[in-house]
Amino acid sequence: MGRHRRPPEEQATYREVFGVAEFRHLWFAQTLSSLGDQLAQVALAVLVYHRTQSALLTALTYALTYLPPIVGGPVLSGLADVLPRRRVMVFCDLARAVLVALMAIEGTPFWTLCALVFVTTLLGAPFTAARAAVLPDILEGDRYVVGAAVNNITHQASQMLGFVAGGALVVALDPRRALGVNAATFLLSALILVLGVRKRKAARDGGPRPGLWRTSRDGARLVFRDTTLRSLVSFAWLCAFYVIPEGLAAPYAATFGKDALYVGVLMAAMPTGMVIGSFLFSRFVRPSGRIRSMGWMSMVACAPLIGCGLKPGLWVVVGLWALAGAGGAYQLAANAAFVAAVPAEARGQAFGLAQSGILAGQGLGILAGGALAQVIGPETVVALAGAAGLSVATMLTMVWTQVRGDVLSSMFAPPAEVKVTASC
């Protein structure tokens, strides 16, 4: 008889996932760095807005946490396939600790600060690709989906807590101290990865290593020549529309008052919704149901933002943004389907390309939103972003209904030995 295999539709549990020691260490490292990142983003947003009183320059600084992938993200992500993935993550953590520490120095000129933010974010591309590529080696089947949900919930919860705590700390302390805390989290993350994640050979170990440019080109061909992968990447990139409110949180909060805590509350709204949505989606929806519901959930991620055009009160805005965040949980299903369709030796590059496109689209969206907010106000910009995103999500859903049958067949077909037993 063959080795026992988990039925394709059997759901894994959170206890199973946290029972894997490597996953716990990878998760803890992510938690530390995510908390520090969100704390730093609030500090940067408030620091720049108070210094310049410009929605455009504030959005520019925030966008610099997304734009660098346009320059080098797809190329640098190939490091996750040609070098050992743990080594890539540790190096990126250490380098970013140094760069963020330089940001915390008093008197750093604005454009120097922008350059440091740019390089720090650029190093996040190979780190994210390596972490995403190594996770399927640690968790298999629906454990991977639940593990990805845990990572997503953790990231969004870290945003929620980090943004609110960041707003409170900026009120009480110098925002540069928050940057120092972020540098320390990178150092701790590197230490945890060294101690808790085992060494693995490079995915393309043995034989000649292709150059990064060739790896990048091959990864792009793999993704864009395949109809399914192209659809899944398009769903991932849809977040370029519904991330715009976060980039406008500071000027949007200024419409309600001058308290920096309002900035943190608004920034935390969408992550809070994402935490709730991701938990419910991974806990109560069967694996095949997640694939089937991707389309309408992507529309929910955009539609509530249209209500901001009516200029409602603060807590109504928070509720609308949180509902949009809950709709964004469809990314869990897109991620799982993407993993199932990509060969292991190209996983780092494919994930890196997808992630770089996500960050690049978000950065451009935030930058465009900041420029428009200078003219027509942040409330109208957020409403327009929701309307545009809903239109794109509707078109993507129409395409997805034509290909999702093949995805469901490939992901949830019963094992061969089960078919034989049934036929007997």
Overview in brief:
The chain crosses the membrane at residues 94-119, 179-197, 232-254, 260-282, 294-314, 356-376, 382-401. The protein is an all-alpha fold.
CATH class: Mainly Alpha
Helix content class = over 70%
> Mean of residue pLDDT?
80
Class based on secondary structure composition and strand pairing: mainly alpha
Instruction: Give the number of helices.
Output: 22
Major β-sheet annotation? none
Order of helix and strand elements from N to C terminus? HHHHHHHHHHHHHHHHHHHHHH
CATH topology: Growth Hormone, Chain: A
Poorly predicted regions are 1-5, 415-424
- As a percent range, the share of strand residues is under 5%
- Tally of domains: 1
Radius of gyration: 21 Å
CATH architecture: Up-down Bundle
Instruction: Count the beta strands.
Output: 0
The CATH superfamily is MFS general substrate transporter like domains
Q: How far do the termini sit from each other?
A: 15 Å
Which word captures the global form?
globular
Could you explain the architecture of this structure?
With 424 residues, the protein is mainly α. Helices cover 78% and strands 0% of the residues. It contains 22 helices and no strands. It has helices at 14-18, 21-52, 55-63, 73-76, 79-82, 85-103, 110-138, 142-172, 175-196, 212-224, 227-237, 239-242, 244-247, 249-254, 260-284, 287-292, 294-300, 314-327, 330-341, 347-376, 378-412, 416-423. Helix 2 (21-52) runs antiparallel to helix 3 and helix 2 runs antiparallel to helix 7. 55% of the residues are buried.
